[in-house]
Amino acid sequence: MKLLGTPLSPFVRKVLFVLEENEITYESDPSVSPMSITEKYKEKYHPLGKIPALEDGDFCLADSSVIISYLNDKFLDKNIYPKDIQQKAKAQWFEEYCDTKVMSELTGVIFYQRVVVVKLLKQECDEELVNQAIENSAPPIFDYLNSILKKSKYLVGDEYSTADMALLCQIIALSYAEFNVDSMQWPELAAYIEDLKSIASVQKVLAAEMQVLAELM
Ligand SMILES: N[C@@H](CCC(=O)N[C@@H](CS)C(=O)NCC(=O)O)C(=O)O
Q1: 65 in ligand 1 pocket by Cβ < 6 Å?
Q2: Mutation to probe ligand 1, out of 4, 8, 9, 11 (largest number of atoms < 8 A from CB)
Q3: Residue 50: which residues within 8 A CB-CB, separation 6 or more?
Q4: Closest protein CA for atom 15 of ligand 1
Q5: CA distances from 71 to 81, 89, 162, 189 (A)
Q6: From 135's CA, which of 46, 72, 96, 104 has a CA 20 to 30 Å away?
């Protein structure tokens, strides 16, 4: 089974967190990036020309959330989602929230401008757009997440789940753009992020992407 996509993509990182946490054997092809998408890739893996994609024998699949759902159904001996159906649905809600709201309002602006535009495209950062995201978009998102973490250790109950992986993959991208959660304003969220970063499978994924990051920065 092969996962295609650079680990600098939050969506690729999300799937890597799932694979490593569940000790699933896989290969990866980190050479595929949004800059290198070919017509052949679109035809074979992803009609929208995005990453990640998964290849499992002859079977190819697009989209991080769909890939995670497939892994859940394929590896029945693993608990990829929480077992309880309401907890599972909650985890999927947080995954959707992070993939859409956090991505479009924070990562897609701050990481995109400061890392993709500046480091990869060698163009100027739109600091006004970045400041608008930091000052106006981040506070309500962090307020919401912090309010959940006042009540439970993880986003869904007391266990690390795909909900946390979906958030952490975005938070890591934001940290590469030098934007971190302020521990004075959002203490529970900031402490939770530090706790997630100490998980062995998370450390393994982050260590592996360090080399790609070093080449970029
Ligand atoms: N909903 C998709 C989003 C994937 C996505 O937007 N990937 C970005 C990289 S972070 C991409 O490939 N962008 C290229 C493009 O939009 O053309 C998923 O969860 O896999």
Answers
A1: yes
A2: 11
A3: 11, 34, 37, 62, 63
A4: 50
A5: 10, 16, 12, 28
A6: 96
Ordered structural domains, the chain, with CATH: 2-74 (3.40.30.10), 85-216 (1.20.1050.10)
- pLDDT tens digits for range 182-210: 999 999 999 999 999 999 999 999 999 99
Give per-residue pLDDT as tens, 98-108.
Answer: 999 999 999 99
Give the torsion sign (CA, 144, 150, 151, 153): positive
Yes or no: say if 156 and 82 are a contact pair by the CB < 8 Å rule: yes
187 Cα: distance to centroid of ligand 1 (angstroms):
30
For 1-45, what is each residue's pLDDT tens digit? Answer: 999 999 999 999 999 999 999 999 999 999 999 999 999 999 999
Structure token digits, residue 63: 């989209």
50 pocket-lining for ligand 1 (C-beta < 6 Å): yes
